[in-house]
Specification:
6% helix; 18-stranded antiparallel beta barrel; mainly beta
C-alpha cells in the first residue's frame, strides 16, 4: 500500500482551501442572484452577470463567468471547472477476506459555454481522471481513470414558440452530452464515479406550461482509459422524459417517462441475464411523484417502472418500486429529517428462458442502496431508515441504515454497476445483510466542500452460503472545488 497517500490528499485539500478562501475574501458584493453549481454545469445560467461589474460582485472567479465578446453583449462566454480528490480505504472488498486496499482518485473538469445571441449555444467540457495504483479486483477500472478526454461537446439551437397563447421554448441539442433525469435512479451521469458517463446523440427539449419534456436518441460512450472515447454503436439509448407539476395534487411534482435500451450481447456484462443470452431490446415505462403532505412536516416520494422487451429469444417481464416517507423535526436540534424507505427490484424465478430481472439502466446507485455499492437495483429488496441533520452551520450529517434481501434466490446478487457479485441458485436463505452509512459534509465556502464517510456491511446468510462472507468496511475522505 502507498503510505504517502494521506499527506497527498491533505496537501491537495490545503491548496484548494487556500484558493477557496481567496475567492471569498472580497466582501464588496453587488446585488446579484448567484446560480448554484450544478451536477450538469450546462444547467447554470450566468447571464445576469451582464448587468453587473464582475470586479465588484464579490467573487474572485466572477470575471470568467461572463465575458462579453461583442459590443452589444449578445455574444458572450462563461468558463468553469472542478477539481475533486477522494482517498478511499477498503477492507474485505466484495466480501473477500484480506481484499484490502487504499488509493487516491483525482478528477479535473473544465468547460467553456459560448452563447451566440439568444438562439445558439456551444458547450464544451473536458475531463482528466486519475487513480493511483488500485489492487482490488478490476485494478484501475474505467470508472476510475480516463487520462484526457472530451466529456461533453454539443451545440444548442434554441427556438422560441407560442403554444396555445403561452410562451414556450424548443431546444435542439446535438453532440456529446451527459444525461440526468429525475432523481437519478435510472439515468445519471454518475458524478460519484471518477470518469462520469456521457452519450453521443440528439436531445429535443420542450419547455411549456410549466413542464419540461425531453426526447432523446443516443449511443453510450464507454471509457477508454488511454485513448479517445468513441460512441458504442452496439448500445443505443433513447426515450422521452417529462417532468412538471402534478395535476390535482397540490405542490406535487410528477415525472413520466419511456426509456428504450437496445444493445448487442457483447455489450451486456456476462452476455445476458441469469442464463438467458443474446441481444437486448428493453423498454421501460415509469413515473415518479413527490412533494409535501399538505401543511404537515411529512414529505413523500414514490417511483415505479415496468420493463418489457426481449433478451435473445426470452421475453422481458420486470419491474421496480421505490418509496420514501420523511418527517422534518424543525424545532429540534439540527432540524433533523427522519425517513423510512422501501425499494423492490424484480429478480428471475429460474435460469434461462424469459427474463424477470429488472435492468437498472444507468443509475446513481450510490445514492440509494448503500455507499459501499455492493448492491444494485436488480433482484433486491431494501428496507431503509435514516436521519439527516445540520448540527452546526455548513455541516450536514447523514446516518442511513439498510437491510437487504434478494427478491428471488434463484437469481444473482448484482452490484451498483450491474455486475454479478454472487450467482443465484446456491443459498437457502434470501437474507443478504445490513449496511450502515455515516456521512459528514462541510461546505467550507461557496467553492470548496469537504466530505468524509464510513460504511460497514454486515454479511448475512445469503452471502455466507454463496462464498466468502466477511463484513466489508469502507472509508473515504473527499474534497471538491468548483468555480
Amino acid at each position: 500500500m502507498n503510505k504517502h497517500l494521506p499527506p497527498c490528499i491533505l496537501a491537495a485539500a490545503f491548496a484548494m482551501a487556500a484558493i477557496g478562501s481567496a475567492a471569498v475574501a472580497q466582501e464588496n458584493a453587488a446585488a446579484f442572484e448567484r446560480p448554484r453549481y450544478q451536477t450538469l454545469r450546462q444547467n447554470e445560467d450566468w447571464s445576469a452577470l451582464a448587468d453587473h461589474d464582475t470586479s465588484q460582485t464579490g467573487d474572485f472567479f466572477d470575471p470568467v463567468k461572463h465575458i462579453a465578446l461583442s459590443e452589444d453583449g449578445d455574444i458572450w462566454i462563461s468558463f468553469g471547472g472542478q477539481v475533486r480528490t477522494r482517498f478511499e480505504v477498503w477492507e474485505n472488498f466484495g466480501f473477500v477476506p484480506a481484499n484490502d486496499d487504499e488509493f487516491l482518485l483525482t478528477r479535473f473538469l473544465v468547460h467553456g459555454d459560448l452563447h451566440i445571441g439568444d438562439h445558439v449555444r456551444v458547450f464544451v467540457e473536458g475531463k482528466s481522471a486519475f487513480s493511483t495504483e488500485r489492487t482490488l479486483p478490476g485494478g484501475r477500472r474505467t470508472l476510475d481513470a480516463d487520462e484526457l478526454d472530451l466529456l461533453q461537446g454539443f451545440v444548442d439551437v434554441i427556438l422560441p414558440l407560442t403554444l396555445g397563447g403561452e410562451d414556450a421554448t424548443l431546444t435542439i441539442r446535438s453532440g456529446r452530452q451527459s444525461l440526468l433525469f429525475g432523481n437519478q435512479r435510472l439515468v445519471s451521469p454518475l458524478p460519484w464515479g471518477n470518469t462520469i458517463r456521457a452519450w453521443d446523440g440528439v436531445s429535443v427539449i420542450l419547455s411549456a406550461y410549466g413542464w419540461k419534456v425531453t426526447g432523446f436518441w443516443t449511443q453510450f460512450v464507454p471509457v477508454k482509459k488511454f485513448s479517445f472515447n468513441d460512441a458504442d454503436a452496439q448500445t443505443e439509448f433513447f426515450g422521452i422524459y417529462a417532468t412538471g407539476a402534478a395535476p390535482v395534487i397540490e405542490n406535487a411534482s410528477l415525472d413520466l417517462y419511456f426509456l428504450g435500451l437496445e444493445r448487442d450481447a457483447a455489450a451486456i456484462p456476462g452476455g445476458g441475464f441469469n442464463g438467458t443470452f443474446g441481444g437486448e431490446e428493453r423498454y421501460t415505462f415509469g413515473g415518479r411523484i413527490r412533494g409535501p403532505v399538505g401543511d404537515t412536516p411529512f414529505d413523500y416520494e414514490v417511483e415505479g417502472a415496468y420493463q418489457t422487451g426481449e433478451v435473445g429469444t426470452g421475453d422481458i417481464d420486470a419491474f421496480m418500486f421505490a418509496s420514501q416517507v420523511g418527517y422534518k423535526l424543525a424545532d429540534f436540534f439540527g432540524a433533523p429529517r427522519v425517513f423510512v424507505g422501501f425499494d423492490y427490484a424484480s429478480g428471475d424465478e429460474s435460469a434461462g428462458g424469459d427474463v424477470e430481472t429488472f435492468n437498472q439502466l444507468f443509475p446513481l446507485g450510490h445514492k440509494y442502496l448503500g455507499y459501499i455499492d455492493v448492491i444494485g437495483r436488480q433482484n433486491i429488496i431494501d428496507l431503509s431508515t435514516g436521519v439527516v441533520l445540520k448540527p452546526i452551520d455548513r455541516l450536514t450529517t447523514k446516518v442511513i441504515g439498510h437491510y437487504f434481501w434478494v427478491a428471488d434466490d434463484s437469481d444473482a446478487l448484482y452490484n451498483a454497476g450491474a455486475g454479478v457479485v454472487r450467482a443465484g441458485g446456491i443459498a437457502t436463505s434470501n437474507e443478504v445483510g445490513a449496511e450502515i452509512d455515516v456521512v459528514f459534509t462541510y461546505q467550507i465556502n461557496q467553492h470548496l466542500k469537504g466530505e468524509a464517510g464510513y460504511s460497514h456491511f454486515f454479511a448475512d446468510d445469503w452471502v455466507e452460503q454463496t462464498g466468502p462472507g466477511s463484513d466489508i468496511d469502507f472509508f473515504y475522505l473527499q474534497f471538491l472545488f468548483m468555480f
